[in-house]
Amino acid sequence: MSAQKIVIIGGVAAGPKAAARARRVAPDAEITIIEKGKLISYAGCGMPFYLSGEVSKFDHLFETTYGVIRNEEYFWREKGCRVLTQTEARSIDREKKEVHVENLVTGEKYAVPYDKLVIATGADPFVPPIEGLNLKGVYKLNHPDDAQKIKEYLDKGEGGEAVIVGAGFIGLETADALMKLHMFCSVVELQDQILPGVLDADMAEVLAKKLTEQGIEFYLGQKVLKLEGDEEGNVTAVVTDQGTIDAELVVVSVGVRPNVELARQAGLTIGETGAIAVNEHLQTSDPDIYALGDCVENTHLVSGKKVYVPLATYANRQGRVVGDNVAGGDSVFRGILATGVLHSMGFNIGRTGLSEKQARDLGYNVVTSLYHGFDRTHYHPEHGMVLMKLVTEEGTGKILGAQALGQGDAVKRIDVTATAITMGATVEQLAEVDLGYAPPFSTPIDVSTHAANIVRNKVAGLAETITPRELKQKMDRGDDMVILDVRTEPQFKMRRLKDNRVKLVVLGDLREKIDEVPRDKEIVVICALGTRSYEALRTLKGAGFEDVKYMEGGLQAWPYQL
Amino acid sequence: MSAQKIVIIGGVAAGPKAAARARRVAPDAEITIIEKGKLISYAGCGMPFYLSGEVSKFDHLFETTYGVIRNEEYFWREKGCRVLTQTEARSIDREKKEVHVENLVTGEKYAVPYDKLVIATGADPFVPPIEGLNLKGVYKLNHPDDAQKIKEYLDKGEGGEAVIVGAGFIGLETADALMKLHMFCSVVELQDQILPGVLDADMAEVLAKKLTEQGIEFYLGQKVLKLEGDEEGNVTAVVTDQGTIDAELVVVSVGVRPNVELARQAGLTIGETGAIAVNEHLQTSDPDIYALGDCVENTHLVSGKKVYVPLATYANRQGRVVGDNVAGGDSVFRGILATGVLHSMGFNIGRTGLSEKQARDLGYNVVTSLYHGFDRTHYHPEHGMVLMKLVTEEGTGKILGAQALGQGDAVKRIDVTATAITMGATVEQLAEVDLGYAPPFSTPIDVSTHAANIVRNKVAGLAETITPRELKQKMDRGDDMVILDVRTEPQFKMRRLKDNRVKLVVLGDLREKIDEVPRDKEIVVICALGTRSYEALRTLKGAGFEDVKYMEGGLQAWPYQL
Question: Which positions fall inside the Rhodanese domain (chains A, B) (predicted)?
């Protein structure tokens, strides 16, 4: 019997990972990777850091941790896998079990036979059908070639005005990189919030305000109509349905689409999301063909629905599963929580599971909480703030999702919550986790524990809350109420809601001044973070006040003008 | 009916937290805190950071996040709780339900009646019975008074040689603080490892080597016999059973003992650990008396055994439970994982659950893994290494515990694992968690996922491993074997095991040079971190080699001379 032939189409992330694992499990297999580009196994996620100069050399994106470049030779010598670069898979003959390829340099066409085939064709950036995309200074950022072109432009040091189209992960990472190079950055987004589908609108508003304070300009809910250029063919402006933004550099990052043509032509099932459908074994509708990475859809572990969320971590973790299975094993990849994290302009941002909107759209009754506090003890010099939102199911207390952002370590709390959600935890269980505490790392009661406790307080009837957004709506509607600010006087003087319904009673004075608070009006208590206003709410409730709410997240999470 | 009387003995951390929660839940209750010291509600964990100057003002340890000092007035005005400082609880009359107290200033004695009593008497540092403890320059570090005294000494700026007795959490944090002040630090420890009971010996050895490289000197397995001083009564040396260490400053931090005298005298049940026994509701053997914080024992959630692990996070989280229960609620505190974290000399250190030794002592059959790698993508400028050890139960795959250390973010991985253990996760489940990935935060496959995957590989028979400690023993025994180093030549030239059984074959050359590797000998493959040696093991196994192991953790985790 001849050696098992494993053929992998795609040499960026998922393909090489599957190859490496298959090799370790099946030493005798003949493993071939087919890649249409010149480069293989590169760290696509590193591109924004290459632009900013944080990654100093282009080659670093292709190196192992021990400094060896991951090229064809590396794969052959260290992994015993053959890599055919600049070779495009044109079609799959499932009956003969062979892939028809073309050498893009020589034009040679031939067939590569397989016993097990792996499709790791990834995704390509979606480019909106607008005029002017061919102007000089207009780039996308998906392939290292793109990064190198932008880097060449940036290295000229002309600085100037950059416009990024798309306020998703790549858009905000790119903005961060360009701002580090002292470019002036605008971000245009079709949706009316940044990070649509990632953060709920309330969290996105807070983040947008913080990033705006750092100097990024957002043009939300605007559709790009065309790009304008000068007579030399250099881009000069981005024209949207609401105005014109000057631009010397444009980066288009409005998302990606799975490369499924090869699979579709071969008659493999394409899912409703538009990506290749696979089962838990990452098998396509043909049991001898597996698919993984950015070209497949995944099962969302909370909703059970199919979703298309192309992330590098799935490509890598799925590589292990596919590597096992093409080598005769039986591994599974159950699904994802669409956990996504991002660093931009000093802010750490993360999310996992379902957003409130996603949960409500799926028919869940939800209880949310918003906690705003420090990631470390406030007396530790490196502390930073984290705003965390927890989305839970009413009745069961099951955690459905979480979002967090701030200059503090928001991402650790997202990872903890992702672990809890994976295990089907309730808020009680999340609140009970024995997390590590020491002043350089956390507070005695951690951010995620606080967020869980707020849900418990709400469910127990101890805390009625209102979100900044809801309070703003009430203010704009002209509702009759008292907005009771319980911060200190210096804090109040520095920054406050400009509204004649606002009344200051410092928390420490509330018990003795309680008669100054009207009993016949709705009361909304506010403070900086939400902690003192909750305390004040309990004091008022204890004194018989009935219609009292406090504003979750506090004024630090107030996304409007102050 | 008169208001419910809640009396709390102890005003440091657990007591005030219980009081604050009780107030929020029971607005009408009469809440009294009795504290024998002058200071209340202080951040004891912040003391090492006050010594180092990272916390610039003593008062910061007593402030709320919004800058209000937590004193008697604060508790009365903001929380509606009465605080009696410098008032000592002398005895409890359970029949009459009153606490007999003495005002330590006036000498006045009186009884404070209670409906529900809370004991939060904390712990006091254990001071070993040695000569010379009264010499000038000898301190403990448990109370802010201690911190202030040491700070006064340090502020004289005399520098010099400090000896810390005890290599536990406080000992290593204190060493970190003193080294920041350019003192020369030695640490004496009775056990033959640092962080005994916290880390397994193998992890402790690696950490001790790293900290030694930073300049700390460890004297392990040495018993302090006495402290010597000069004619002016200043300490000059620490004398152990093995020698004399010069010292101008001595900090004794050999652990704490629960303050249980009051409870014992009142006839309350004291547990086998020597701390007050409580049920899940944190009720003592008297249903009207609750206890929490450093004076109680807890249930270990993995072993189910009672343990005494006094940590600030338990004091705080238990405060919520006791606050609820004394106010008529029904909250529970199920137990702990003894999660502990620490920062010292640039290293982040953490542990949760059972150590390997603890697990084996309890009769578990365990499978462990050691993963050594980067906390972020290696091309990101802020990456650091993390060495993580996972302890799992053979057969079930249940995670029993984890330890991690390194200049990278070890603590995040401990928090994730603690969450997994709380939920009873197996290694498969830990490996499946959808953790957030982006280059500033993690690698596409996270440290904890890798650690879980190594266990899976071992269980699947893909990887036989040996620990550095085991290899050292084999080397010392003179075992016949080949130690196959598969790193690059420059790496090998820079630093390697000096042993004539070592043979270099660079991983990339292994396939073509495989005949140079003897087939009749035991082979131990080594590399820098363990990644390449695992790859080489699979290559050798694939080529028919049978007796092959790789060294987990790599040479970076080699705790001996190189």
Answer: 477-559
The alpha carbon of residue B286 is apart from the nearest alpha carbon of chain A, in Å, by: 25
Residues of A in contact with B79 (CB under 8 A): 535
B453: left (phi over 0), alpha (psi -120 to 50) or beta: alpha
Rounded to whole angstroms, how far apart are CA atoms A416 and A450? 13
Which residue in chain A has the smallest CA separation from B346?
Answer: A440
Note the ipTM here: 0.96
Interface contact B434-A337, CB threshold 8 A: yes
Give per-residue pLDDT as tens, B241-282.
Answer: 999 999 999 999 999 999 999 999 999 999 999 999 999 999
Nearest-Cα residue of chain B relative to residue A173: B438
Distance CA A55, CA B381 (A): 7
Which residues from A are below 8 Å from B337, CB to CB? 434
Give chain A's count of helices (H) and strands (E).
15, 30
> Which residue from A13, A379, A435 is facing B60, i.e. has the nearest CB?
A379
Residue B20 half-sphere exposure, CB side, CA atoms within 13 Å?
24
Residue pairs spanning A and B at CB distance below 8 A: 288
- What does the alpha-carbon distance between residue A151 and residue A146 come to, in Å, rounded to a whole number? 8
Domains and CATH numbers, chain B: 5-124+257-326 (3.50.50.60), 138-254 (3.50.50.60), 346-459 (3.30.390.30), 465-557 (3.40.250.10)
In chain B, what residues touch A411 (CB-CB under 8 Å)? 412, 436, 441
Angle at B557 between CA B553 and CA B560, to 5 degrees: 135
> pLDDT tens digit string along A162-205?
999 999 999 999 999 999 988 999 999 999 999 999 999 999 99
Which residues, 6 or more positions from A11, have their beta carbon under 8 angstroms from its beta carbon?
Answer: A33, A34, A35, A37, A40, A41, A83, A85, A120
pTM of the model: 0.96
Dist. CA A83–CA A75, nearest whole Å: 7
Nearest Cα to Cα of residue A356 among A554, A530, A202, A461: A202
**Residues comprising chain A, all counted:** 562
Q: Are residues B511 and A77, on separate chains, in Cβ contact within 8 Å?
A: yes
Residue B334, chain A, CB below 8 Å: the answer is: yes
**Chain A neighbours among B 148-207 (CB < 8 Å)?**
169, 173
The torsion of the CA quartet A536, A537, A540, A544, rounded to 10 degrees, works out to: -160
Indicate which of A435, A442, A448 best probes the interface with B, i.e. most B CBs within 10 Å of its own CB. Answer: A435
Dump pLDDT digits (tens) for A127-172: 889 999 999 999 988 888 888 889 888 888 777 899 999 999 999 9
DSSP 8-state symbol, A195: S
Among this protein's residues, is B45 annotated catalytic? yes
Q: Which of B309, B311, B330, B435 to mutate to test the interface with A (most CBs of A within 10 A)?
A: B435
Q: Which parts of A12-159 fold into alpha helices (H)?
A: 14-25, 47-52, 72-79, 144-155
A414 contacts B45? CB cut-off 8 A: no
- Say yes or no to pLDDT of B58 above 80: yes
Q: A487 at the B interface (CB within 8 A)?
A: yes
B377/chain A closest Cα distance in angstroms = 8
Among B303, B341, B419, the strongest candidate for a mutation testing the A interface, having the largest count of A CBs within 10 A, is B419
Q: Where would I find the beta strands (DSSP E) of B323-480?
A: 340-344, 347-353, 366-374, 385-393, 399-406, 465-466
